[in-house]
Task: structure prediction
Amino acid sequence: MRHKQLIRRTKCYVALGLLAAPTAYAHDPVFGLGPHTLFKGGVEVHVGSHQEKAGDERATESEIAIKYGLTADWVAGIGLPYVHSTDESDGGRGPTSLSTKYRFWRNDLPGVQESAAVLAKAILDDGDASHGQAERNGNDYLVGLAYGYEGRKWYRWASIRHRVNNDAANGAERPNKTLVDLVGGIRFEPTEYREPDWVWMLELNYEHTEHLSALSEGLPRQIGGDQWFLSPGLMWTLRNFAVKTGVQLPLYDDLAGNQDADDYRALVELEWHL
Result:
């Protein structure tokens, strides 16, 4: 009996160790925000591409980002995007982003890890002159809060983010945004560290854009409103390498004026942990 109890405890501690270690077992959602941080001195190289289509307009943003683990609970990063759009005036190098995330709470249980983190990001006003975002009058800022539950089979995350946008250089107001994400995930078959690992996710994403009045070609128009998305996603990992992909499908929208709702948003990302 004692021998069986010892084996059972050992398996629990091994599972916990796999979750706590800086390996492929640390996951964040595809579109939402997660509490995952790096180990001290760790480096994450991130390459991603995000595409949005609304009406006749389609834009693709590609980004390379590097993150560094200042401690096991505190990470800092820099992102450099490039935007290609069907509207040529909105193409070019996007604004540099500087981010930091701090995990302020962690609860380790046999086979389960719960954690929570805060995030802050500054989106600098340094993009190409041809890029619409470069017409801002100063930097934009984002703050967020994330919770995560990671088990050997089941995952869940919740997050909220608020982005404060500065006005344009010509004085036009730019609306602030609030995003809320609820995510569930499942690993159908538990795997070992050296084996390919699959986690399937389903997200419910809400986006609120501040209601404002603006001018377009000299005519008044309304901007802002609410959008809901249902977003299936997948994360495939092999040791310290990961591929993450998903698509946001519109579920409901209530947009002011004659704004075009998003037809879809798609994302693919590659990550290396060094």
Summary: Residues 2-273 form a domain with the Porin fold (CATH 2.40.160.40).
